[in-house]
Amino acid sequence: MDSDSLLIISGYSLGIFAVSFAGGKLAVLGSMTHTRIQILMSLVAGFILGIAMYHLLPHSLERISGPGNVEKAVALVVFGMVLMIFLLRVFHFHQHDFSNEAGELYDHHDHGDSGGHSGSLVGVAMGLGVHTVTEGVALGTSMRISSPHEDGGALPALGVFLAIVLHKPLDAYSIIGMMKFGGYSARARAAANTAFALLCPLVALASFWGVGLLGLDDGSSIGYVLAFAAGAFLCIALSDLMPEIQFHSHDRGKLIASLLVGIALAYGLYFIESSAVHGTEAQHGH
């Protein structure tokens, strides 16, 4: 096993744990304003959308071999999206905004029961748990695509890592915010925050080791996982954007600009990585 790769994914895991834990703490300390949350959600959704299209999907197509590779990749993208849609419909877990303005807005549009009910909280925890496992598998698998010694020194799986880092605090904020609203004790909230912050890093490390132990590095298996993850990431991004588009007519300029900035950041990272790869290939060619 490449010690540098292990060091990098260990660093990624620590970073994800830190930001997720901080997101849960933010929910305890106080709520963010409605507008700030919406702007942040648009930025993160745009970035995740870009990571799915510029990073995960192209890498999956590179890894899936044989005839019909495009059809296989598209089928797995659709499967990833459908699975996430199913989870969203069953568990209703992708609500990040607990400000007073959001509560009034969603109540006005008959968006169901209050987020503090225990049944609702269990659904959110289960849905976000599966969603987090998907992110961890995507990160661990993406680390197997390239070595840190290749690609002109570009860090492997950097785009996936950043997408998780940007989004994970919002997920932790959702769970701990609902627990605070539901009257759970400080000890229960701290335990839940710690457990949730550990989930993605542990799954990422297990996936990284598992792919290597099973000898799947050179086959199409990594491509299949990345295509599935691309579909899941697309659904995650759109599940943040669709309610916002339907129910938030204010601050349109800010929200659209944030979305475009997020997509541009993802493309910029893709452009830098591609330039590094092409530069390395040109050097080897000479």
| Rg, Å, rounded | 19 Å
Helix content: over 70%
Instruction: Please report the distance between the alpha carbons of the first and last residues.
Output: 30 Å
For the sheet with most strands, the description reads: none
Report the average pLDDT across residues.
80
How do the SSEs run, as a string of H and E? Answer: HHHHHHHHH
Number of helices in the DSSP assignment: 9
Q: List the uncertain runs.
A: 101-117
**Structural class of the helices, strands and pairings?**
mainly alpha
Strand content: under 5%
The strand count comes to: 0
What does the overall shape look like? globular
Highlighted features:
286 residues; mainly alpha; 9 helices; globular
Helix and strand arrangement:
Blueprint: H1 3-29, H2 34-63, H3 69-91, H4 100-108, H5 118-142, H6 158-181, H7 186-213, H8 221-247, H9 252-285
Helix pairs in contact: 1-6, 1-7, 2-6, 2-8, 2-9, 3-5, 3-8, 5-6, 5-7, 5-8, 6-7
What does this structure look like?
There is one protein chain. The chain is mainly α and 286 residues long. It is 79% helix and 0% strand. It contains nine helices and no strands. The longest helix is centred in the last third of the chain and has 34 residues, at 252-285. 44% of the residues are buried.
